[in-house]
Every structure is written in structure tokens, then in C-alpha cells.
Write a structure and sequence with these properties.
Blueprint (H helix, E strand, L loop, with lengths): L2 H19 L7 H8 L3 H7 L3 H14 L3 H5 L3 H14 L1 H7 L8 H21 L11 H21 L6 H12 L3 H9 L1
Helix pairs in contact: 1-2, 1-4, 4-8, 6-10, 8-9
């Protein structure tokens, strides 16, 4: 691992430790660097702000591990792994989920998921447009990132009561049926 990767990892770990002690919005850059024995200059060499640290954590710890599964079309397994990795650090993600407004945890998650889904779609299909010129890979990635983020946020905010497998099944149920299908099933 390069010294840059080691420094980034130390800063990410520092932020995670600090989130155990106080709310995310009360954590300063000085707190983060002090926790891991680095100076502010080192922080700003690697990250623009603490929100970018959160983005790095999401990309490295939640999304990077699912890449091989996605490349092998193991979508269900990818979803279970996402929820499992979130649940492993339940306290950290529960606290982050409370951040609102600009640079909220929800906004960061949506952005990271959208980037991953767009990359995945383009790797599988190229830049093809489906049915209508509005249905570009970018719009489809945005739609699925929005729905996935909605499920992730609500699962975290409700205390992660369902198991990773159960919440993955809920998400799969919702995205594989039309609203009319669900209404029809509820009427039965």
C-alpha cells in the first residue's frame, strides 16, 4: 500500500472513531488529524473536506467490494453485501444518516451509487439508449441510485431491523414490479 493510501486510510479510520464519540457535524478537520497524529496540511493534500472522507469510506468499504459481483451479474449478492457491510458498522452509519442539508449522508450515498451504476451500465451495454432518447444510461443510473438510496436510508433510520438478506429481498421486490403489479398483489 502506498504512503498516500495509508494516510487516506488513517484519516478515514480517524473519522470513524470520532463518530463514536460525537455527532458528525461537530467533528472538525483538526479533530480528524489530531486523532491520527497528522497535520491539517496532510488532510488537505488528500481530501477537500470531511464529506469527501465519507465519500471515500463509502466507495472503499461499501461499493468497492461489490464490483466483482456486479461484473459477474450477481446483483442480488451485491445488494446483500452492501447491507451486510453497512450493518457491520451500524453505529457509524446510523450517526452519519442523521446528517442533513447540503453534503448530507444521503446525498453522498446517492452520488456514489449513481457513479458506480453508471460505470456498471456502460461497461455492460455501452452508451445505448433504451426505447427513448430520455432513457440514457445516466438517467437510468440516477433513477436506480435514487431508489437504492431511499431503501438504504430508511433501513438505517429504522434501526436496521431487517437482516441484510431480507432488506435486499425487499429492494428486489420493489424494483422488479410495476406499481400496478404491487397494487394487484395487495388486492388479492
Amino acid at each position: 500500500m502506498s504512503s498516500s493510501a495509508i494516510t487516506k486510510s488513517a484519516l478515514c479510520d480517524s473519522l470513524k472513531k470520532l463518530c463514536e464519540q460525537k455527532p458528525f457535524d461537530k467533528i472538525s478537520i483538526s479533530d480528524i488529524t489530531g486523532e491520527c497524529g497528522l497535520n491539517r496540511q496532510s488532510f488537505y493534500y488528500h481530501f477537500q473536506d470531511k464529506y469527501e472522507v465519507v465519500e471515500r469510506i463509502i466507495k472503499d468499504e461499501i461499493l468497492q467490494p461489490i464490483r466483482p459481483l456486479l461484473q459477474n451479474d450477481m446483483i442480488d449478492e451485491s445488494m446483500i453485501l452492501i447491507f451486510s457491510n453497512l450493518q457491520k458498522e451500524k453505529e457509524f452509519y446510523t450517526k452519519l444518516a442523521k446528517t442533513t442539508g447540503q453534503n448530507s449522508f444521503e446525498e453522498i450515498v446517492r452520488k456514489c451509487v449513481e457513479e458506480l451504476l453508471l460505470e456498471f451500465m456502460i461497461s455492460k451495454t455501452g452508451e445505448k439508449v433504451v426505447k427513448d432518447r430520455w432513457l440514457t444510461p445516466a438517467m437510468i443510473a440516477k433513477y436506480y441510485a435514487q431508489s437504492m438510496t431511499f431503501v438504504v436510508m430508511n433501513w438505517i433510520q429504522s434501526g436496521m431491523l431487517l437482516s441484510p438478506k431480507e432488506i435486499a429481498e425487499v429492494y428486489d421486490y420493489i424494483i422488479t414490479r410495476s406499481m400496478q403489479d404491487i397494487i394487484d398483489e395487495l388486492k388479492e
